[in-house]
Specification:
two-stranded antiparallel sheet, about 280 residues, 9 strands, alpha/beta, about 20% strand, single chain, 12 helices
């Protein structure tokens, strides 16, 4: 069977008696117009390697395969194995299935030295920890085109001084150029979630911080935003307080929400230099 001859996603779900599991944060994208748009936004095509997390019934997987890309799909829910195996059989060797937890998956081993893109409609309950893993871990994807709850997407691209600006945005923007590329209303999903969603595209920066620097950035931002209403000299007291902030060239009376990414990288550098 070819990809074109496959039953619709809704027919496939009904045939296998499958439904979304709240415990896994699942909300299915069954509209191929939307999944194809995400695949276009990912800018992948013939021969590109794509890692997809949480394919579920395979709506986005089908759209990615239509581009000519080679896809490795990581799925935790074993209920989808028969349905995804049918899709793999129709993909003529371009779809590899990996059943396991994406939080513990070794993407570098899956990519086997090839440049790879990450494209996913992420399960809501693990979207943020997965993004932090990919931003700060030892393996660096070429690009990430990911769907999150809209609130999380806004935090990823937020600017200093905005209510959404925080630790996630600092880390994401230090490692990548991040921009919102698409909104998806709740009604686009089955079952509809209680919130809207959005797609964010992240491309690795040429001046991406080293692993050591990213680790320091995580520690500094955790302390600073852990007490975001306090001045930096107070929130960073355990890391050096006013002396640390002054060494970074920042105002000790400033609050975390007003410090830009460059300022936080300076704080990370100052902390590393003080150790």
């Amino acid at each position: 069977m070819s990809l074109e001859a496959l039953p619709t996603l809704r027919e496939a779900l009904e045939a296998h008696g499958l439904w979304a599991k709240k415990a896994f944060g699942q909300h299915f994208l069954l509209d191929l117009n939307i999944t194809r748009k995400i695949a276009r936004l990912a800018e992948v095509g013939d021969g590109d390697l794509v890692i997809e997390v949480g394919p579920g019934p395979g709506g986005l997987t089908r759209a990615l395969l239509e581009t000519g890309a080679q896809v490795i799909a990581v799925e935790k829910d074993e209920r989808f194995r028969p349905l995804l195996e049918e899709l793999a059989a129709a993909a003529n060797g371009r779809l590899t299935l990996v059943f396991g937890d994406a939080l513990t998956t070794d993407e570098a081993a899956l990519a086997a030295g090839r440049p790879a893109h990450l494209v996913s409609n992420l399960p809501y309950n693990v979207g943020t920890p997965l993004l932090i893993k990919w931003l700060t871990g030892p393996w660096t994807p070429v690009s990430l085109t990911l769907m999150f709850q809209k609130e999380v997407a806004e935090r990823i691209v937020a600017a200093p001084g905005s209510g959404a600006y925080g630790r996630l945005g600092v880390i994401a923007q230090a490692a990548c150029d991040a921009r919102p590329v698409m909104d998806a209303p709740a009604r686009a999903f089955t079952p509809p979630p209680k919130v809207d969603s959005a797609v964010v595209r992240l491309e690795s920066r040429a001046d991406r911080p080293s692993p050591q620097r990213l680790d320091a950035l995580q520690k500094v931002t955790a302390a600073a935003f852990g007490q975001r209403r306090k001045m930096l000299r107070s929130s960073l007291k355990v890391m050096g307080g006013e002396a640390l902030v002054t060494a970074a060239g920042l105002d000790p009376a400033a609050r975390a929400e007003m410090v830009d990414v460059k300022g936080f990288l300076a704080l990370a550098d100052a902390w590393l230099a003080s150790r």
